[in-house]
Structure formats: C-alpha cells, structure tokens
Amino acid sequence: MNISAQQLNTYIALGVLAGLATVIAFIQTWKWFVRSGKEIIDLATIGKFVFYIFGSVGTAILLVIAGVSVYWLFFYKKQYEQNFEDADISSFLSLFKVFLVISFVLKTLDIIHLIIQQTGIDIFFMDWERSKTGDLSSVSVWRTYFVANEFNEIQTFRRINVAFQLFFVLFFLKVIRLENISCAQSTFTLFTEETNCTEYNQILRTGLGFSTLLGTAIIQYIAYAIFYQRIIADRIVNFIDLCSVSNISVFVLDENQHGYYIHGRSPHGRTDVNIKEVLMNLHREANQMSGTRGLQNNSNDQIFIMKMNRNFRKQYDLLFRTYYNYVGPRKTREDVERYTDMLLQSYQNLNGFLCAFIDHSLASHKYFIRNRYFLERVLNYEFQARANLNTDGTMDNFFYIDNERSFTKIFLYGEERSLFIWNTIVFLLVDSIATNYILAAAITYTLNSIFVSIRDSFGRRNLSRKTLIPRNFLI
Fold it and tell me: pLDDT value at position 168?
C-alpha cells in the first residue's frame, strides 16, 4: 500500500469537502442575514459566518475520516497482511488523530453556538380566552402554565436516545465482539473471547465504530418514525393539540424578522370550562360538528413560518420592552400591588396586539398566507415575495404553512443531525486516544448529558424570562 498516495487522496477529499462546507456556510449566513433584517455586513454577520464555517468544516472532516476508515475496513481488511506488510501507517494514524481533534473542537463550538441560538429566542404565549365577566384580569393563567411546561419538556427531547444507542453500540462491539474485525490481521472470530488478536488497527476501529454508530442511529430513527411516533406518542403533535385544547397560541421569533407561529385558538371559543364541556367539545370536533383548528377557514394548518417586516418588529419590541421592564429586572418594590397591576396591563397590551394581528384587525400590520415552493422547502429559505409594498418601502408580513415542521429547529429535536455528528466525533476521538470502546461510550454519554443539562437550564431561564412564568413553575 502506498501510504503517501493515501494521504494525498485524503487531503484532496478534505479540500473538496471543505470548499463545499464553505459554500454551505455562506448560504446559512445569507439566510440569517436576511431573516435578521440587516442591511450591511457587520461584526455580527462575520461572527455568524465563522461559526457556520466551524460547523460545516467540522462535519466535512468527519465525513473524510469516516469515508477513508470505512473504505479501509471493506477493501483492505480481507488481505490485511498483503496490504500492510511493508507499510508504515504511523504518520497516517497521527494525521487521523489530528483531524479528529480539529473536528471535535470545531463541532463543539458549533454546538455551543446552537445552544446560544436556541436559548435566546423571543417567545410569547398568546391567550385567546375571554372572561365570562368581561374583566380580562379574571382569566385564569393555569392554562398558560400548563402549555409552558410542555414546551419546556420538549426543548431537549430527541428522536435518538443517546443512552439507548450507546448501549446497543457496546452490545454489538463488545458482546457480539464485532470489535475483533478491527484486528491487525486478515482473520477474526465473533461471539467468543478466544482470539489471537494482539493489536488493533486504529483506522479500522474508527471505520467500525462509525458504521456501528450510524447503523444503530438509523435503526432507532426508523423505529421512532414508524412505530413510536405512530403508536405510542408524537410529542410535537401532542403539544400542538394541547395548545388547541388550552386556547393558547405560541408566537416565537428566532431572528429579528423571522419566527414561527403555532395557532392554538380553540374552535369552541372558550376552554376554561368544566369536564363535561371539555368532553362535549372534543366530541363535536371528532364528529365535525364544530369549526376547524386551523388559522384559515376550513383548514387544519396550525404551524406557520413567519416573515415579518421592520414595522411589525418595531411595534413588537416597543410593547415587549414595556412588558419586559416589569418581567426582567424583578427589582424589589414597596408597592407590590401597583407593580403587579402595571405588569398585568403590559402583558394584556402585548397579548391584545398579537391577537389583533392574527385576527387581521390591524390595518397597519397585514399578513398573507401561502405555501412554500418546492425550492423553498429544499433550502428551508423563503424567497422575497411582494404582495404589497408599503409607503415606507417595507413589505407585508408573510405566513408560510409549515408542513415540514421547521419550527422544531428551536428544539434539540430539530437539530438531530448536528447532535448525532457531535456525539459520533466524541466517541471516535476518545477511542482513537484510549483504544477503548467502553470508555468512549461513557465519555460520550457524559458530555452529551452535560450539554443537554446546559441547554435545559438556559432554555428554562429564557422561557421564564420571556413569558413571565416563574422558574419554580416549570417542572
């Protein structure tokens, strides 16, 4: 085997994929730039581009490592002695470790960036409930608390259970002893500890580890989509149903002029009722004796991607700033009753503004609803579409029907691919250093748990800060 040629091919593959990663990072930055409503390239834009480069290049390095190691595993293993008899692969192994370290650093920074993004969103729970007495201050807040708790729970929910995945990875590698395939020899045995393997080839171990991780992830993903999601529970659909039953809509802005809207307005008007009326309402819906839950008439579409103009954002920020002045600082005030009265009034103003906007009751803030084009769905980007150009040069707001559930991007659920890649890099890096799959699984699980805990803590803090719900109510 010509190791120099192998190294050259690896560099070429890395260069090609790194170039492609740069293009992808540029597209991601452009989407962020437009959604943020920026007009000039500033330091924030450059910073975003750098972090997107980190994530894309980190993934590209993993793909090169995985491609080379899996190729060796399938094409060089059967004739190991013939291929590696006179080959000195120590330099190639060192190159692999350097690549894994760089990929780990870049992807870890990308995950940190992801957590910062997700825990900095603006979110507001719109309450459509109307008071029986006409006094808005008498509307119960418990429905909002209930929806907020469910939202908090699904923030860190993933389709791939890391503990479950690592358990099966170790089962295949250590119990069935697929690990023996990576022995530095042509022959190997399975299902038994009796083996003449005295040395492992680290590149073959990397290919075997990656293949096992990928295989178990795909199996778990398919099992979730086909069985768990359909038979046991679809937590995303359940959350949307809960919003409708609670008469609560979710208004999220993940960027300055971009966000998501979950329409939870009940077709029955009121949901703060007794158990008999709840059951009767559900019976009417099941038998199509009431209106639909969708935002539009005779429609069941409840999830939308929002593209907002500058005027709406300014008005929202103005109302939110007034609201946040009483939510955020939480200063000690002697006049508690006056403080809570002003807080309630500012909350009702923001809630009323958003409800009026959704109801098309604000002439200065119109919006239009349409489906996304095929290319928009593929790129997850909404093109400029001018329904009406206002006198100040701003365009109308747009709501795009989100059949693809793009709104899950604000949860770990929607970033499954990035998280799986990061978990895989951690596993392969630890094994390349320690040559121990068990230790690699333990450290991967530990690091994943730490980052999930950080995401949960900061997400809970942001939810409490933006929605006026005390953290001790978020279970």
Answer: 95
Give dist(CA 304, CA 2) in Å, integer: 55
How many whole angstroms separate alpha carbon 343 and alpha carbon 331? Answer: 13
How far apart CA 164 and CA 167 sit, in angstroms, is: 5
Of 429, 443, 416, 357, the residue nearest 156 (C-alpha) = 416
CA distance 80 to 84: 6
Name the pLDDT band for 386 (thresholds 50, 70, 90). low
**DSSP code string of 263-283:** ----TTS-----HHHHHHHHH
Q: In what order do the strands lie in the sheet with 248-255?
A: 122-127, 248-255, 258-262, 303-307, 397-401, 367-371
* Contact predicate 153/431, CB 8 Å: no
Q: What distance in Å separates the CA atoms of residue 195 and residue 183, rounded to the nearest whole number?
A: 10
Query: How far is CA 4 from each of CA 1, 95, 282, rounded to the nearest angstrom?
Result: 9, 12, 70
**Cβ neighbours for 16, distance < 8 A, ≥ 6 positions apart:** none
Provide the 3-class DSSP secondary structure of residue 146.
helix
**Amino acid letter, residue 68:** V
Q: Rounded to an integer, what distance in angstroms lies between the CA atom of residue 108 and that of residue 111?
A: 5
Furthest-apart CA atoms within the chain: distance in Å: 89
Q: Which amino acid is at 124?
A: F
pLDDT digits (tens, 9 = 90+) for 321-337: 776 665 555 555 555 66
Pairing outcome for strands 248-255 and 258-262: antiparallel
Q: Quote the CA–CA distance of 458 and 452 in Å, as a whole number.
A: 10
Predicted TM-score of the model (pTM):
0.89
Contact 427, 446 (CB under 8 A): no
Picking from 128, 407, 123, 410, the residue whose alpha carbon sits closest to that of residue 264 is 128
What is the pairing mode between strands 397-401 and 367-371?
parallel
Q: What angle do CA 65, 90, 2 make, to 5 degrees?
A: 75
Distance CA 335, CA 343 (A): 12
Would you call 306 exposed, middle or buried from its count of C-beta atoms within 10 A (0-12, 13-18, 19+)? buried
Q: Which two tokens stand for residue 231?
A: 């038979």
